[in-house]
Design a protein that fits this description.
The complex is a heterodimer. Chain A is α+β, with helices and mostly antiparallel strands. Helices cover about 65% and strands about 10% of the residues of chain A. The longest helix of chain A is centred in the middle third of the chain and has 66 residues. By secondary structure, chain B is an all-alpha fold. Chain B contains four helices and no strands. Chain B has a domain of about 80 residues: Substrate Binding Domain Of Dnak, Chain:A, Domain 2 (Up-down Bundle). The chains are: A alpha+beta, B mainly alpha.
Chain lengths: ~270, ~120
């Protein structure tokens, strides 16, 4: 009898200490959960972004709170305090996500605005470049004649008697290509001329071949064939006398006649 | 002699009280769904500790189910569900942060180009 009492007493003491332990742990958990809940509850962003999770955090906390008044419910208190804390944290994360997304939407608008501005500025610079190129083309031996804007490629760009364009012509040819790309409506007529040395037929052929050589390079560099006319005039229409070497050199030439901006080209000779 | 049946009755009642916890089938389903959703947004146990926790708790909940310890099963499954949902929320928040960083980088680049163009 006496022994069983002692055992009973020991058992009671053990139970009490167990309860005490769980009770202390659950009290700490309850406090933490309560503090977390206070923070999300008072944050208007969290309330706006995740109202349901905040409510559930509150409900779980209330449940843990209620259970903590019952004897031997330490595990349950811990459980509901844990759930409450999780809900608070989920609510906080949702809120951060929503805030980030809202900021991203604003930044996206800003990005589009800047992109548009950049495109405009690039376009402007291309237009300025185009204007600059046009000025350069004008400067490069172009003359405004009754035939329109005419650019002369001199004799030095070809070998004697040959139709092939020399490498030294690259720069000027590239400029013409760029100019035509920036002015997509303009078309050109490429006209070949020789001096009066040699036979009429040969001169006619050479002048045509030289003009065609220039046209070929333009096509190779991406200019549509339809925008290019080719003519050979042989020794006709000299710009200087054929009696002197200097005069003859002037007469050996390829002329590029540019149309106006609308693509109107003066009549051929 | 008269007291003994009373104890027996109490014991039976207590046992019945334990056994009265129904099998938390619905909770198990919810938890499974939450885990799937977290994985669907790209959460992995290696990178998101909450998902690892959720998976472990869910495994234990399932073995509690086979042992018919339904209360434990329910509690573990409930915790696992919220662990998984937190994992999902964290991944989504991280993604939104990354998106902000990308946008900020692009904007900085655009501004730089605009400044250079203006010169």
């Amino acid at each position: 009898m006496k022994r069983s009492r002692v055992v009973g007493g020991l058992l009671l003491a053990a139970l009490a200490s167990l309860y005490g332990c769980a009770g202390q742990r659950s009290e700490v958990a309850l406090e933490k959960a309560s503090a977390d809940f206070q923070k999300v509850k008072e944050d208007s962003n969290v309330l706006r972004a995740a109202p349901k999770d905040v409510i559930r955090a509150g409900e779980s906390l209330a449940r843990a709170d209620r259970l903590s008044t019952y004897w031997g419910s330490g595990e349950d208190v811990l459980h509901y305090a844990y759930l409450s804390q999780r809900y608070s944290e989920i609510a906080r994360q949702h809120s951060n996500q929503v805030l980030n997304e809202e900021r991203a939407a604003k930044l996206e608008l800003e990005r589009q605005r800047l992109q548009l501005a950049l495109r405009e500025s690039k376009l402007l610079s291309v237009q300025q470049q185009g204007k600059w190129l046009e000025e350069q083309i004008m400067e490069m031996a172009t003359t405004q004649t009754d035939r329109g804007l005419v650019m002369t490629l001199g004799d030095v760009l070809f070998d004697t008697g040959e139709a092939e364009l020399k490498n030294s012509a690259n720069r000027v040819v590239l400029k013409i290509v760029q100019f035509l790309q920036l002015n997509p409506k303009r078309v050109v007529r490429i006209e070949g001329y020789t001096d009066s040395t040699g036979g009429k037929q040969e001169n006619l052929k050479l002048s045509r071949d030289r003009a065609q050589a220039v046209a070929d390079v333009l096509v190779d560099l991406g200019i549509d064939e339809k925008r290019i006319q080719v003519e050979g005039y042989g020794d006709e229409f000299p710009v200087d006398v054929n009696a002197t070497e200097r005069g003859r050199a002037q007469n050996r030439r390829v002329e590029i006649v540019f149309s106006d901006e609308k693509g109107q080209l003066g009549a051929s000779r | 002699m008269t007291i003994r049946p009373l104890f027996a009755a109490l014991a039976v009642l207590a046992l019945a009280g334990c056994a009265a916890d129904p099998a938390p089938n619905e909770q198990i389903r919810l938890t499974e769904q939450a885990l799937e959703q977290a994985r669907a947004v790209g959460a992995t146990a290696d990178e998101v500790p909450e998902l690892k926790l959720a998976e472990e708790k869910f495994e234990r909940a399932k073995s509690n189910m086979t042992d018919q310890s339904y209360k434990k099963a329910r509690m573990r499954a409930e915790q696992a569900e919220l662990d998984a949902r937190l994992a999902e929320a964290k991944v989504l928040t991280l993604k939104s942060e990354e998106q902000l960083n990308v946008l900020n980088t692009r904007i900085a680049r655009l501004r730089k180009q605009l400044r250079e163009d203006a010169q």
